Fold this sequence. Notes:
Layout: H1 10-25, E1 34-36, E2 46-54, E3 57-62, E4 72-74, H2 82-97, H3 99-102, E5 105-112, E6 118-124, H4 130-143, E7 146-151, E8 154-157, E9 162-169, E10 172-179, H5 188-202, E11 208-212, H6 220-223, E12 230-233, H7 237-249, E13 255-258, H8 262-269, E14 288-293, H9 302-308, E15 313-318, H10 321-331, E16 335-343, E17 353-360, H11 365-374
Parallel strand pairs: 1-16, 6-7, 11-12, 11-14, 12-13, 14-15
Antiparallel strand pairs: 2-3, 2-5, 3-4, 5-6, 7-8, 9-10, 15-17, 16-17
Amino acid sequence: MGTAFDPAGYDQQLEEKRQRLMSLLQPFAAPEPEVFTSPREHFRLRAEFRLWYEQGQPHYAMFEPGDNRRPILIEQLPIASKRINELMMPLLEACKADPLLGRKLFQIEFLTTLTGEALVTLCYHRPIDEEWDAAATALAQQLDILLIGRSRGRKRVLQRDHVLEALSVNGRTWHYQQTEGGFTQPNGQVNQHMLAWAQEVAGDNADDLLELYCGNGNFTLPLSTRFRRVLATELSKSSVRSALENIALNQVDNVTLVRLSSEEVTQALTGVREFRRLQGIDLSGYDFGTVFVDPPRAGLDPATLELVKGYQRILYISCNPQTLAANLDELHETHRVVRCALFDQFPYTHHMESGVLLERRGFSAASSTAAAARRPGGRPE
């Protein structure tokens, strides 16, 4: 994550990212990227800190990349949410005052929400038991937080192991269970921009959406309003559990979720292999016009690249513009970039999130929507 914090230089840093993205997308005749800014401080909803002990006293510590020997001792972190900053020192002082909480404590992790909930995980180099539970329960009540204790092979959850987030997307509020240790977008305000942009560029469709790498359903929920049906896939068991909870929490009834990797989805859709996890799901009954992908930093693997080329539209969210450009080098043979965006999820770092909408060459979105509405099972919006 780094420790640089320079609000005065934010606009220049963002412009450099925009220029870098434009340079990467220039070979594909992409339009100007839409740029979505971040708050300049208190934007990061999760953070983790190692503890560094000096004269037996613990301090929050961060390190420059590649250097874990020279700590930067901190009491506040301006990029972290206000809730994290409010909790940092009272939590540390309570742990220093009570050996049941502080002995062999080596790491503290925070997960907060835009709604103000906070889940804190205390990590130990010793076993923790019922005595720890009693002290931790008092601390959780004192600070109005959810608290988890972790030691080797043990996880003690006092109340629940997740926070409940509420995200506003184009006038509707979506509710999300975000689990401790699970992946969530760290910048909640920018995440709302990402979801709104994806929903808007998806348009209104009478056919179906195939979603790969759906995670906890972050994009799945808003996109479900733009398609007749959604088949969403994810490999991580914990993410699948959260996604199913979030689908139920928001009373979404047109999403089917399957635990498959992107490679397995490719095998299933191309008829190479059958999966018991797909029993009762009629893949032939879907009419996929759009595929949505939000892959890991490595981008799309060759087989998945070949699969997505077969769809009229590809909506691609990327956390690594270099691998996005590499994937576009192949996708550009069959598709053209019609929309693109820069989402500044990670101010004061070189990292950026980006999005592109690709349409198959010769494809007309308007005529396709009209044709889909005339098909059996088509659902005009």
